[in-house]
Amino acid sequence: MTSPAASAASEAPAATRSWRPGRPVPVGALLRQQRRGSGDPTHRLAVAGRHWRASRTPQGVAALAVCEQDHDGVIAASAWGPGAPWALDQLPALLGDLDDWTGFEARHPVLAEARRHHPHLRQGRTGLVLEALVPAIIEQKVTGQEAFAGFRALVRGHGIPAPGPGAAHGLMVQPDAATLRQVPSWEWLRLHVDPARSRAVVTAARHAEALERAAGLPGEEAERRLRALPGIGVWTAAEVRQRALGDPDAVSFGDYHVAKDVGWALEGRLFDDAELARYLRPWAGHRGRVPFLVAAAGLRRPRRGPRMAPRGHLGGRDQIA
């Protein structure tokens, strides 16, 4: 049995921080940007009065617990594990403090209204490339339900419990690169991840150290580095740029919904990717903010047809992946 003293020691945070950003911060909404579905084991939002997140930082694993902003404008956070100091240093960036909207013009009444209703919503960045890349690869060309289930199974089967009390709430850390490289092919199939995607994950894990350096690069250069690997195309690179780099110009071309929803919300008709690319040219440098605001406003085209069916396998490399 664990003694009360040992239990208390495991719950004591390795580090704490009180941050006063000087602006309203919707903590839960910003952390939800990083979550892969409501069952994501690496995130537990609004549990025991805090929002929980587990990650592998450059200094080691960390569990982060963040409170909502109090009436004095302070956000209190605690962290456990060897990566705790790094996670707390990264907290402002994670909660959108580096997201600069200077130069963005709404140019459309729907976007202006969305911005007016969500003035405090920003794009956060984690600074962790492999963490964003692995679930993005798993999500390639499959339904959201299938993608989230595959990532959830991977973390639960090959990840580790998060340090600190978050583990009692089911909080877990993604498997590291060495573990990903050793997952056998039959196990990937059991996780409902086909060979094309599992090869891409394993390849990324083999280049993990180099990929993490992309976090400090401009968006387009980071994309070139990502897309140099087999199995990583436009969509996957954009998803990483958005989450790991907080890149406001990254657009998820190739997504099943993004182009259609933006076209429907802003022009009353469905766009394809080519139309979306042309339409977004006036927002160069901030193109990703257009679908960001459309999604924030909850503007989705009516889903009248059948839902995209789960797919059992994929073909070879897809440049849109």
Share of β-strand residues: 5-15%
For the biggest β-sheet, the strand order reads: 1-5-4-3-2
Helix content: 40-55%
Kindly report how far apart the N and C termini lie: 49 Å
Q: What's the gist of this structure?
A:
The protein has 321 residues and is an alpha+beta fold. 41% of the residues lie in helices and 11% in strands. β4 and β5 form a beta hairpin.
Explain the overall architecture.
This protein has 321 residues and is of the alpha+beta class. Helix content is 41%, strand content 11%. A 5-stranded antiparallel beta sheet has the order 1-5-4-3-2. Strand 4 (60-66) and strand 5 (75-80) form a beta hairpin. The longest helix is centred in the middle third of the chain and has 15 residues, at 144-158. The protein is globular and about 50 Å long.
Could you name the key traits of this structure?
alpha+beta; two-stranded antiparallel ribbon; 16 helices; globular; disordered N terminus
